[in-house]
Design goal:
The protein is mostly helical. The protein has one domain. It is built from four helices and no strands. α1 runs parallel beside α3. The protein is globular, with a radius of gyration of 15 Å. The chain starts with 5 loop residues before the first helix and ends with a helix.
Length: 121
Amino acid sequence: MIKKNKFSILVALIIMYLSMTSSHTFDNVPLINIPNFDKVVHFGMYFGLMSVIILEYRKTIKSIGNLFLTGLIPLFYGILIEIMQSTLTVTRTGSFYDALADGAGILVSILLWIWIKPLIK
C-alpha cells in the first residue's frame, strides 16, 4: 500500500510539516504582502495533494462519485491538521477558512480531472 501511495504520502507529510512547524520559521521568508495569502497557499497545497492522489489512482477510480469520495480523504486530513494546529501548537491556530481553502483546492483538482480525463483518452 505504501509503495502505491508513496507520492501522496510524501506530499501529505510535507503539508503536515509545513502546517505544524512554528510560524516563526517562516518569518524571514519574503512573501508577497497580500492579505490572506495563506489561503492561496492552502488552496495550492491541497490542490497538489488531490492531484497526486488522482494521478496515483487514475486507473482505479471509475466513477465521478468515487472521485468525490476519494476527495474526502484529503479534506478530512486538512480538517484534522487545523484541529491539531489549534490543540498541539503554540504559534499556530486552526481556521475554518483555511479548511475551506483546502476544500476549494481539492474541488478544483477534481473538476479539472473530470474536464481533462476525456481529452486524454
